[in-house]
Design a protein that fits this description.
The protein is mainly α and 207 residues long. The protein has two domains: 1-54, Orthogonal Bundle (Arc Repressor Mutant, subunit A), CATH 1.10.10.60; 57-198, Tetracycline Repressor, domain 2 (Orthogonal Bundle), CATH 1.10.357. It is built from ten helices and no strands. The model has no long low-confidence stretch (mean pLDDT 91).
Length: 207
C-alpha cells in the first residue's frame, strides 16, 4: 500500500487499524513493554499518526476495553431485563456469554493484562472498573436480588455480593494463563457446578 492510499484511509478505518495493532502487541508483549512507536510500526504508519487518534498508550487501552466490552454488557443488560427468566437460567446464560465472548476469544487477554499489569497503571484500572466492572456488577446484582426475592438462592446474602458470581470467570482467566499447560480446566463444568452452589434445586430436580 502506497503513501497516497494510506492518506486516503477513512479516519475510523485508520483508528480501527491502530487499535488492532495495539491489541496484538499488548497481547504479545504486555502493556508496559509496548511503545507507541511499536504500535505505529505494526500498523504501518508514522508515530505521529497514532497521536492524531490517541493521546497516549492508556487511551489506546481504554478504547480497546470499551469497544470490546460494550456489546457484551449490552447483551447482559438485555438478558437481565427479562424478569420472566428464573435466576438460575439467567446466571447460566451469563456464564455461557462469558464462555463464548470472553474466554473463547482474544478478549480474554484484556482481563489477563488487567490482572497482571493493572496495579501499575491506575488510570487504566480505574477506567475498566468504572465503565466495565461497575456496569456488569450492577446487572448481576439486579439478577441476584430478583432471585433472592423469589427464594431461588441457597443463601440470599449472595445478592449483596455479585463479585462472587464473577469469581469463576476471573479464576478461569488466571488458570488458563498460568496452569493450563499442566492441567486442563473444564470451564463449562466449572460454571455448571458453580450455578448449583448458588441456587436451590428447581422443583423436580434431585437435591
Amino acid at each position: 500500500m502506497n503513501e497516497k492510499t494510506r492518506k486516503r484511509r477513512d479516519p475510523e478505518e485508520r483508528r480501527a487499524e491502530i487499535l488492532a495493532a495495539a491489541f496484538a502487541l499488548f497481547s504479545e508483549r504486555g502493556f508496559a513493554a509496548t511503545r507507541i512507536e511499536d504500535v505505529a510500526a505494526r500498523a504501518g504508519i508514522a508515530k505521529g499518526t497514532v497521536y492524531l487518534h490517541f493521546p497516549d498508550k492508556e487511551a489506546l487501552f481504554t478504547s480497546l476495553a470499551s469497544g470490546m466490552a460494550s456489546p457484551i454488557l449490552a447483551n447482559m443488560e438485555a438478558m437481565a431485563a427479562n424478569d420472566a427468566i428464573p435466576g438460575r437460567m439467567m446466571i447460566a446464560g451469563l456464564y455461557a456469554l462469558a464462555q463464548n465472548e470472553i474466554l473463547g476469544t482474544d478478549r480474554r487477554h484484556m482481563l489477563r493484562l488487567l490482572l497482571s499489569e493493572g496495579q501499575f497503571f491506575p488510570v487504566v484500572a480505574e477506567f475498566y472498573h468504572r465503565n466495565v466492572m461497575t456496569v456488569g456488577l450492577r446487572v448481576l446484582r439486579q439478577v441476584l436480588e430478583r432471585a433472592a426475592a423469589r427464594g431461588e438462592l441457597r443463601n440470599p446474602k449472595i445478592a449483596a455480593m455479585p463479585q462472587i458470581v464473577f469469581a469463576p470467570v476471573l479464576m478461569s482467566i488466571i488458570w488458563t494463563t498460568l496452569f493450563e499447560p499442566y492441567e486442563h480446566l473444564d470451564t463449562h463444568a466449572l460454571f455448571d457446578t458453580f450455578v448449583e452452589t448458588l441456587f436451590l434445586p428447581v422443583q423436580g430436580d434431585a437435591p
